[in-house]
Amino acid sequence: MLCEKIIGSLNDGVTHAALAAQMGAYTVEEVPFAWFETHRRINRKTGENGTEVGIRLDDEAARRGIHDGDVLGVNVARCHVLVAHVESASAIVAEVAPGDVTAAARLAWTVGNTHTPLFAGDGEGSFLVPWSEPLKVALEQLPGVQVHERDVLLDSARQLSTGGGHGHGHAHAHGHVHGHGDAHAHEHGEDVPVPAEVAQ
Question: What is the CATH number of domain 88-158?
Fold first, then answer.
């Protein structure tokens, strides 16, 4: 299957509703991505069930990046949806006190000086940086910055600089069925996008 644009996201109710209206119940196959692959214009991936996926994004889509939960392709005849899954990775969690603009500026400058992307963390004053031992040491020396290591989701949806939970309420267990009612075949061809109103 060829993916040339992001159709929508299972993290919003609009896309899920459109898919359910078009197909009834549908199955999800996750396509794994490392965080550093999400801005590549051209890529080739394999879904968890073996589906080969070719990715060819335009410049705008590549700048946006592939987000966790993005719908990459839809096979209406099979009631089958390919969804991006950004895998967790080791990261530096750097935290500053809310409102401490000076510490936040020092942190951002130090990270940016290494051309490493910076991501928003879970709360105000929390930032995520892909793991690097030298960068961790540098950040630990900054006044007002607390640093520790954790495996986290480095999702491009939360990326603050480029450097060099699912809201629709349906769990993403592997191979299970989404939506309501019985799955059914569709008279259209193999790979059909969902309606334009959910395309991004």
Answer: 3.30.70.790
